[in-house]
Amino acid sequence: MNQRENVMAVYRGEQPDYYGDLMAAVDFILDPLFVQDALIPQDGKEYRDSWGTVKVFLPGSPGPHPHLTSENVVVKDIEKWEQQMVVPDIENLDWTQARETAAQIDRNEKLACFFYPGGLFERSHFLQGVEVGLMNYLEYPDETAAMLRVIADHKMAYIRKVAEETHPDIIFYHDDWGTKQNLFLPPQVWRDIIKPLQKEIADTIHECGMIYMHHADCILEPIVEDLVEIGVDIWQGVIAQNDIVKIQALTKGKLAMIGGIDGPKIDMENITEEEIRKEVRRAIDTYCPAGRFYPSIPNGVCFREWNNEIFMDELSKYGREYAQKHPIA
């Protein structure tokens, strides 16, 4: 099997040649809006993105990030969000680079994956600040839901445009709904405000003939059955702090997952080679028996070169060995 065939075998619950990270089998098409917003100088100065959020790119940091104060946030008063929020135009974007990249992907060998960060929850706190945004979900649920309705409509229109321009196999949608300890919002608040809109987004992705892969490298255990109801096809970023075996039982094979290897546990100084290899084997042995599982580090790699070489070597060797020794009936 080539890379595409192998990861799709796992996706369909069929026998693969090996178990490994699905992300190794994708080629990315970058979101033109994201590229436009991310191309700011790495000088620590403030710049506004297409939604008006102030961002800075500090020297030495991996990328730009929001730099919000009570004075520079876009939505200063949730009751006046309609006057304060400006929705980016999607009609005049330059799709040339995205189309060219998409055309160069060998779809027989790889999956074309459109990188689409900044989901509903993330955009809501980018516009208001985290603390105020979280409080507004609780104190002003109607206003927050109305604001997210407009953001969701923009996202669905954009997804249709993405499909028209580049025809991806996968939409790689980002929205971190929690931390390593818990969800940011009470589950019922998430269900009342975010879930209905996220279902519409999922439906749009599927109507356009694409796989919906959702990135959230955090705790999502309390809402995993909701993910299935929404229509999430693949959850990328499954951290080991979730009870993954329990989640696999709850979702009954309806949710493919990528992750399970505890990256921070093995991406450290003063760790032995065997300890790294042991963690990789633990994840494969524990989570692959349920099927539709791609063992990986949720963020993809170890940042320390020596650690990453060992991690990748063990994943390649043991992922293949496990597949050969445990054939799917």
Automatic annotation (TrEMBL):
Keywords: Methyltransferase, Transferase
GO molecular function: methyltransferase activity; uroporphyrinogen decarboxylase activity
Protein's GO biological process: methylation; porphyrin-containing compound biosynthetic process
Pfam families given in the database record: URO-D
Enzyme Commission number, as recorded: 2.1.1.-
Secretion signal, residue range per the UniProt entry: none
Residues of the Uroporphyrinogen decarboxylase (URO-D) domain: 134-285
Name by which UniProt lists this protein: Methyltransferase 1 MttB23
Annotated source species: Acetobacterium woodii (strain ATCC 29683 / DSM 1030 / JCM 2381 / KCTC 1655 / WB1)
Gene for this chain: mttB23
